[in-house]
Design brief:
single chain; alpha/beta; Collagenase (Catalytic Domain); 4-stranded mixed sheet; 56% helix
Length: 154
């Protein structure tokens, strides 16, 4: 089972998703029903719904980049260790995801906000699960998992 602690640090999130915590919990419930990996282990992560100022400060502090970004992911485990923990069927803390509301709003244009939001938090979740996109092969694997998870939550 996978669960999230959702923290809303920017009240403007509720203008786009009225009840963000319930929204994420509904999506995770669908993933839990359809994904065997999450049925065998107890996973948890934190999702911080922030704005531009908060994410810029975090980006500077942890990545030494003095700019805003759409998402930050901080995996708690390296992929090899995570795979060992998964085999032992432990309770596993995956890490933290921070999402910038302002960047989503700028990027969506005519798109559906919920779809754009789902894409970005799923992208962050795949990072917490040890995926990277430094090479084309890694990017392809990560994208396949993202698409699979997005299909689960429709």
């Amino acid at each position: 089972m996978i669960k999230a602690d959702v923290i809303i640090s920017n009240k403007n999130w509720k203008k786009n998703i009225r009840f963000p915590i319930a929204y994420i919990n509904r999506k995770l419930k669908k993933i839990n029903k359809k994904n065997n990996l999450f049925k065998k282990n107890n996973f948890k992560f934190t999702l911080l719904l922030a704005g531009g100022i908060e994410i810029k400060k975090l980006n500077l502090k942890f990545r030494k980049k003095n700019k805003t970004t759409d998402i930050l992911s901080f995996p708690f485990h390296k992929k090899k260790l995570l795979n060992k923990l998964i085999k032992k069927k432990n309770s596993i803390y995956l890490g933290d995801i921070i999402i910038n509301l302002n960047k989503i709003n700028k990027a969506i244009g005519n798109q559906n906000f919920n779809l754009a939001f789902d894409r970005i938090w799923i992208h962050g979740l795949t990072h917490l699960l040890g995926h990277r996109h430094k090479s084309n092969i890694d990017f392809s694997k990560m994208q396949k998992l993202e698409n699979k998870l997005l299909q689960f939550i429709k």
